[in-house]
Amino acid sequence: MKKSAIIIGGGLGGLFTGAILSKEGLDVTVVEKNTTVGGGLQTFVRFGESFDTGMHVIGGMQEGGNIRKICKYLGILDKIHIKDVDADCIDRLYFAEDKKEYKIAKGRKNFVESLASYFPDQKDNLTRYVDAMFRITEELDLFYLRPTKNDIFMHSEDFIKSADAFIAQYITDERLQHIVAYMNPLYSGRGDMTPAFVHAIISVLYINGPSRFAGGSGLFAEVLKNLIIDNGGKVYVNEAVETIVTEDKNIKSIVTAKGRELVADYYISAIHPCTMLKMLDNPKVFPKSYRTRLEEVPNSYSAFTLNIKLKPNTFKYFNYTAYYMSKYNEIWNFGRTDNQWPLGFLYMTPPEIEQGEYSTKLIVTAPMAWEYVKKWENTTVGHRGEEYEAWKKECCEKLLDMMEEVHPGIRDCIDKINTASPLTIRDYYGVKEGGMCGFSKDYKNIILSQVPVVTKIPNLLLTGQCNNLHGFCGVPLTAIVTSEVILGMNYVINKINEL
Ligand SMILES: Cc1cc2nc3c(=O)[nH]c(=O)nc-3n(C[C@H](O)[C@H](O)[C@H](O)COP(=O)(O)OP(=O)(O)OC[C@H]3O[C@@H](n4cnc5c(N)ncnc54)[C@H](O)[C@@H]3O)c2cc1C
Predict the structure, then answer these.
(1) Ligand 1 pocket member 435 (CB < 6 A)
(2) What are the structural domain ranges in the chain?
(3) Which pTM value belongs to this model?
(4) Which one of 130, 328, 482, 493 has the fewest beta carbons within 10 angstroms of its own beta carbon?
(5) Which atom of ligand 1 has the smallest separation from the CA of 242?
(6) Could you read off the pLDDT of 236-276 as tens digits, one per residue?
């Protein structure tokens, strides 16, 4: 008989898991609290312009890339719109401290050469450093979509070092040590916490080539949603799950805010695990140690975002990600509060499907710790008060002042600005403390943030960014792991490799 699965949360993880399971014959129902599916893939409209909520740079979509292969297996490659960034400049970095710029090129060899052009005496060190990062990723079968083996595997020493110690082991120039850590806002990196393997996976992913959604990430979410529906599944939107009903240490059903009770063989929580715990009618189905542990895992830092509608034909489109960094030696400190905000930010012009010479919008994303908005944590969207609105305006002006430094006259190009704070992220995604990447990983205690997709409750599984790795690469890979608990070990991986 056809097995059924209910997925709580129609974000990146929920949709990928739903797409896989429905393709493999399960009767899937996705329940999403927002009016549109997508979570981090969502697109919203302001001032007549559509903006992506988060997903601005994506990895694994180049020819031969892991996520591209998953899309091929799902049969959606011809339905999606992806644009690669420029090969000779995937990222442009600007350091305000000495007003220097660095252009980074795509590909293992070109990445080394582009940085070696600024630091010629470090060329061999850069080669060794990049080789070491690729070696680290080789330790992860899932990253290369290789079947998982059943043996006990020990990771290398490099794998679990702190990222900054790992870098310093290969790169001797202190300034270059900071520069090669520039992608850390993409994984909420912290010098005092981030393990080398997180730094290596994300760096390798983007050295291989970043891409972006053309026409908005929301289109991709719609493709996944339609696939689930075409496979016979259901997707409910605007319907938050309120209660997870338990019975004899199993899940019996879920109840939504509309009072709908839904029953299935499997329940998959694709939301933040701490949010899921609060929905259980009897939290004691989990031992206290598990609940306490989940509450104690630190969350990654959040972000303050400017979604800018530009005046027509005033600001040229650029096909890469730009970084503004204040100081070299603050590169690992974005998540801290004992320094000045903002330490830096990323900005980009998201591509349209038919992109012309000028951009219609500009996104500025500045990492920000939750502590900055904690005093308004008990407020809701649209009701946060005047002090909060004034604070947001102040943050916006600070970012625009810095933008003026790299793009003089930028203010004259702006038509309208929408701002989003860590509170916005918390309330739209339902993610604790507005964390950009879910649970934070700490090399001093790797086990703490390793939350398995299986739980003590046999018919409750987890998926999403808190289980393995966040983002457009990490979350779909975890969707495979979650799906294979139901379908069988290596079931999906083998199918992908047969293509
Ligand atoms: C500002 C920002 C920028 C980012 N930029 C990038 C980027 O450029 N590239 C990249 O790869 N990653 C980026 N990320 C990270 C990426 O967005 C996340 O890692 C990813 O979206 C996590 O997927 P998920 O499925 O775990 O959670 P989400 O995508 O957040 O999905 C969770 C879903 O669950 C829903 N939900 C919550 N509670 C309930 C409930 N009670 N009932 C029903 N539904 C519920 C939410 O509405 C949401 O749709 C960014 C994140 C942020 C915040």
Answers:
(1) no
(2) 4-83+214-297+440-498, 106-209, 301-436
(3) 0.96
(4) 328
(5) 41
(6) 999 999 999 999 999 999 999 999 999 999 999 999 999 99
